[in-house]
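Practice set, problem 2.
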Amino acid sequence: MKTLTLSDHVSSQQNKASEQRNADYAAALQKHQALCEERRQRGAALRAHFSASLRQKRLFAVMGGAFRLFAYLFEGKPRLPVKAGASREEVVWMAGGEGEQRVSHVLARRLPDDWTLISGYRNAGGEIDQLLVSRAGVLAVEIKTLNGRIYCEGDRWWRDKYDKYGNCVERSVPIVDKGGRAPSAQVNASADRLETFLAKRGISLRVSRAVVLAHDSSEIGLMRGLTIDYVTTLKRIDSIDLLKSSRTVLTPTQVDEVISLIRQDHSYHEKPRQDRTRVSDRRKGRSGAGRSQGRRPVSHPS
């Protein structure tokens, strides 16, 4: 199996969270050093004042200076900051990255060289964790590293969480992204746009959709009204028909064209908004000229 990484959003988010944690610790250390220096200067001033009072034999000044000096010595030094552990967000990103790697490793062992795994494709609908492209078609994969039993009803997903002893510790926990979308809605939003993008460029096919549960403790509960093609665990990933299909949907040339178009579309959506607008305007100009000349249809073998 060949691999192509367009972006590594999970790792970049994990690194961002880790860098923020390191920056917070560095700032706390700097503040600690400043407080220590301030305390040192204050102590030096108190000692100097006490010594001067002794030399000048000013009794009340000596007594007051001694009191302030003892108070200073007993107040304690500023506490050294402790570096915080990984935040919940960082742990989630870390688990997501590990889940994607595990799926990649399993697929690499099971799929031949004429398959291509594309990671991190993004379009207007969001990011697809992994795309599999072969002569059997295109499969969009959303990966979730979730402990527990997962249920769904249409585009509403939830799970029951269990501890390491098998006790249920939390029920009916919603499974949504930051935008409130369930896994099926996530993958469908991007897969629908990919289908439309390919169709406009002469490649008419349906992008299959799957959710793969990559945690060792993931279990599939009741699934009703699925809006995607497959839900499976990492151990049962062979249950996805597309992976073992001998059916031919694309020619080798079309497979290469699909991969090239996916790279092109991802590159377009990675651009800043103003750059995308200029590119879109140029595309509209070319498509208008192309319509006047007609477009060659692309045949698809059965």
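Problem 2, part (b): a different protein.
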Amino acid sequence: MIFFRPYEYVYDEYYDCILCPEHHILNYATTNRNGYREYKSKPYICEKCPSREQCTHSRSCQKTVTRHIWEDYMELVEDNRHTPENQVLYARRKETVERVFADAKEKHGMRYTPYRGLAQVTKWVRLKFAALNLKKLAIHLRKDRQPSLFYTVYIPFLCSDLVFA
């Protein structure tokens, strides 16, 4: 026997309840420690339901459906993500944002850190990304055919406060 899918239980925002596929009401019972609101059915209704085998196998004939307290916000984000403008932006993530992290992991040894502790790892990551930004700047200026500007202006400026021992 196949159980009902979670999306077949519909949340009614106005009454703060969930409707099962047989159009019975599951009322709010409690919020657990993990931030999920629990909606429970009435056992005397589920006991006589023709779809009970697809819904629950509990001895008490009670169905419990959970919904996270931030689920409303997640639905708004998902709706926003599927708009035509944001689909174009979302498709570019693999070329821009995710590409930086992929390069950092593959080409610059950022899969693992040789340091322990938040302060040391933070310094190490900042140094790595500063080097990546310098590399990106050099490539950008090279495309503009101004490498001499980079070497005469940016490198002395960026290295002015570095102390070499």
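Answer key, part (b): Residues 6-76 form one domain. Residues 118-143 form the longest helix (26 residues).
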